[in-house]
Amino acid sequence: MLPEPYPTLDDLLLMMGEAGKRLSELEACEGAAGNISVCLRWPVEPRTRFPLSEEIELPQPVPELAGAILLVSGSGRRLREIIDEPAASVGCIRVNEGGRTGSLFTSGQRRFQRVTSEFNSHLAVHADQIASSGTNFHAIVHAQPPRLTYLSHVPRYRDESHLNMRLLRWQPETIINLPEGIGFVPFRIPGSPELMEGTLESLRKHRIVVWAKHGVMARSDVSVKRAVDRIDYAETAAKYEYLNLCAGEAGEGLTADEIRAICKTLSLQQKIF
Ligand SMILES: [Zn+2]
Questions:
Q1: What is the C-alpha to C-alpha distance for residues 219 and 227, in angstroms, rounded to an integer?
Q2: What is the mean pLDDT of each successive set of 10 residues along the chain, which is 273 residues long?
Q3: Separation CA 182–CA 235 (nearest Å)
Q4: Residue 264: helix, strand or coil by DSSP?
Q5: Spacing, Cα 254 to ligand 1 middle (Å)
Q6: 194 Cα–ligand 1 center, Å
Q7: 79, 104, 159, 203: which could join 29 in a potential S-S bond, CB 3.0 to 4.6 Å?
Q8: Euclidean distance between the first and final Cα of the chain, in Å?
Q9: Residue 220 Cα, ligand 1 centroid: separation in angstroms?
């Protein structure tokens, strides 16, 4: 939930651009991989930045988002380029009454046909989170960080409990920043209803979820960059795990007792260790 004064459209586009830049530094958005969206529920005039408009059908009805504004990266656009030319890569959708359709506002610089092909998952998670928490702001980022994704190709890391015990042992701040741990969705076809449903379910309990053999999706009700931070922490944990595998598993990591002691000192609730 964001307090007033609310960020402007330009503030939000800048944050999406900075998020894209950081994801690029993490090598998590090669080519046109990855996508970003934010959903806001305060009054915004899209035409100041996006003067063109057309009616679109939404991938599924979201009556709870009627009147909400979404900024969404365009299909085929590069996240690292949002920072230089946001209106070329981002569209603005206002959800119509009933939640079945919306107005897509774009700029003359627009260089995409449709918004991201993962829009169904973005929309479902925004609607679910906003309905349950009542937040006025919600950000979602999908990216493809290589080490987290690589580990999801190794069968034993596809067990959510094993994945978390292994990844959250390398730095004290990992459990502090991801106290609910990392969710896991088995391989599903990109853009499919099955991936959307698995993601929706997992993001009710976690702030970041691994999509097996594909990448991750993270959310935040504070900022886009906070969602990217979650990807950054999880990918750093995977980097240590990967290093350890390459080094013949010489490292022991923080023990369960050490992690429990950190959580006790900080009064942090966790169920992983
Ligand atoms: Zn992807």
A1: 5
A2: 94 98 97 97 96 97 97 97 97 98 97 95 96 97 98 98 98 97 98 96 98 98 97 98 98 98 96 96
A3: 11
A4: helix
A5: 32
A6: 15
A7: 79
A8: 30
A9: 19
Query: How far, in Å, is the centroid of ligand 1 from the Cα of 226?
Result: 19
The pLDDT value recorded for residue 195 is 96
> What pTM was computed for the model?
0.96
Q: How far is the CA of 5 from the centre of ligand 1 (A)?
A: 34
Distance 228 CA to ligand 1 centre (A): 15
193 CA → ligand 1 middle, Å: 15
Q: Kindly tell me the burial class for residue 28, based on how many C-beta atoms sit within 10 Å of its own C-beta (0-12, 13-18, 19 or more).
A: buried
Question: At 217, which helix (H) or strand (E)?
Answer: strand 215-220
Question: What is the structure's pLDDT at 266?
Answer: 97
Ligand 1 midpoint to CA 174 (Å): 24
Distance 213 CA to ligand 1 centre (A): 10
Tell how far the Cα of 209 is from the centroid of ligand 1, in angstroms.
Answer: 13
Closest CA to 156 of 178, 184, 181, 198: 184
pLDDT score at 102: 98
